[in-house]
Amino acid sequence: xxxxxxxxxxxxxxxxxxxxxxxxxxxxxxxxxxxxxxxxxxxxxxxxxxxxxxxxxxxxxxxxxxxxxxxxxxxxxxxxxxxxxxxxxxxxxxxxxxxxxxxxxxxxxxxxxxxxxxxxxxxxxxxxxxxxxxxxxxxxxxxxxxxxxxxxxxxxxxxxxxxxxxxxxxxxxxxxxxxxxxxxxxxxxxxxxxxxxxxxxxxxxxxxxxxxxxxxxxxxxxxxxxxxxxxxxxxxxxxxxxxxxxxxxxxxxxxxxxxxxxxxxxxxxxxxxxxxxxxxxxxxxxxxxxxxxxxxxxxxxxxxxxxxxxxxxxxxxxxxxxxxxxxxxxxxxxxxxxxxxxxxxxxxxxxxxxxxxxxxxxxx
Length: 364
Ligand code: AN7
Prior knowledge:
The protein is of the alpha/beta class and 364 residues long. 43% of the residues lie in helices and 14% in strands. The strands form two sheets. It has a six-stranded mixed β-sheet, with helices on both faces. Helix 10 (204-218) links the parallel strand 7 and strand 8. It is globular and about 65 Å long. The chain starts with 8 loop residues before the first helix and ends with a helix. The structure holds ligand AN7.
């Protein structure tokens, strides 16, 4: 006989589990009792205090580790809402253009909802791990001979023409879900940080995050709002330079974006919060990634490390004095791992003598 699920410990555990961001923050989200909730129990990601880097910068620094979301990036917060609303509306299929993480998230949530999913990728510069996710989740993938900006423009037209639901962050439900990261930070700290630092590509996340802090203030959950600091890569810094960039270049492929879709929202978040945009060199991004991995135990993708590089740049210009800062680490390093050739590893004969000689040398 099958065990009765309702009386088993299994059912109890499921009932007590974190339900995902829609159920956790339902009052703040555009869902009703009729909305079919498509969730992978995203959200409730760790807010990890810095061990070393924060003190070095003169900050009380925390990392919001969004890589711990089910598909390994912050995109899942918005995608649970966008795909739930697409299902509610009877959508035929979802579609997005993406530098990789939106694609991986859309593909996973569409698979969960049994909705067809079409992914449009720029032909060069999507990290292999992200492409692997998209394919594994069964999405239909096409690459266009263009960068992300042109791919998004074409995909917007395609969605309108073919009657597909666009789940890029121009879909308003995406930003509604993504604002929950601000709620979680305040729930964990009991206040907003002085500084909220995050990498910026399309500007969706900084727009959403700022909205989240404002809504929590209106609800009486916080008093002082944070300064929003958006970090871009030097070769793809339209919001710092003040104009679109035609051929954006950076090692951080996730934010290789020259024409941010949420330009106004991003500018408004920085302006209204008394924050700013800064740009950092690729070398600084990769150095920050190594410091996070070796010094804090956190492996993130290059775009995410840009946030730390931005903080380091600000600290070099003007020392901090104990402010509370939160860095959003947006995506996992396993999606786009640091290059390492196995042939570069020290290789020894299969004896404990040979092994211990090399290990002692490595530890010296
Ligand atoms: C790891 O997946 O645009 O400023 O198509 O993957 O909200 O665009 C990804 C963006 C930061 C920038 N960090 O966020 C896409 C895409 C990571 C990212 C950003 C992205 P937005």
